[in-house]
Design brief:
Helices cover 34% and strands 22% of the residues. The chain has 369 residues and is α/β, with parallel strands linked by helices. The longest helix is centred in the first third of the chain and has 19 residues.
Length: 369
Amino acid sequence: MQIKELRLVEIKMPLVHFFETSFGRTYDRTIILVQATDSDGATGWGEVTCGESPGYSEEWTGSAWVTIEKILAPMVIGHEVASAADIAGLMTWARGNRMAKSGIETACWDLEAKRLGVPLWRHLGGVNREIGSGVSIGIQDNIPQLLEKIATEVAAGYKRIKIKISPSWDYDVLKEVRREFPEILLMADANSAYRLADLDRLKSFDEFDLMMLEQPLAHDDIVDHAKLQAAIKTPICLDEPIKSAEDARKAIELSSGRIINLKNGRVGGHTESKKVEAVCRENNIPVWCGGMLESGIGRAHNIAISTLAGYTMPGDVSASKRYWHEDIISPEVIVSENGTITAPDAPGIGFEIKHDLIKKLTIRETILS
């Protein structure tokens, strides 16, 4: 494989409903899409999943654009590699910037799968064509509004409900949710809003029979999480600190958590995701696919990687209509009445790109060759 050209397209998509975490409230998404073209003219699409500001990670759309344009693209364009699995290796000199790297790397995986005429999920080594789908519900204006949203998603068949929490939106909220929905699979995502000094408060969540408590402590910590996990019954799920297979190995050795949220962008793309999945599977640590409010292109890549054997829990991969008035892929992602998504049979990501809609949503674009 030799990449001849990378096209960057920045689009802006309004959300159907605002999404709020401990980082803040989001009404729309600015997203960078990457189209990779090889020397034979074949193309593939990827997505840079970072946010509009450096809240979740140090990357944001403004920095990712410049990093790809000035640093990463020259490392990739024109260089011969045996397969898409080797694309990440071309960019190792540049530290971090994993979400920018993932946009390029996943586009190359899509390209390669299309050239081979196989679905991306099979090309990645997936074994479970049907994946479980969960939803993530942000902090709402009030508890009745939250309960109404949960009722809607449960009626739609989603297998797991995740709600965002913060020190001002936690115990009483969880109590009301459990009172209203005693049987649902429920998890809470803290987005690093707590400290070890909040142990008593975090321990109080044990009474709600949560599937997991996601990333309660600092975004880069695995030491205090180990102390917290030893003190509470609820399984801790690690998110932000797991940026590689090595990070996963160290966290597992420290018993920092019992579950890992695996995001393609956070680890740099499919190649590293496969390595993290293997480490976790070999150590009986379940993983699931987290979401970053992706467009249909990023969502399609999430579906593909979620078919690997180690992804044993419902992820944040949900229907397009939950987020977008119109998605940029066809058909849009749908969830069955049983709360599952079926990976497509078509080559590559398995969805057609709505080029006219992308053009309508475009803020800027550039071609690097």
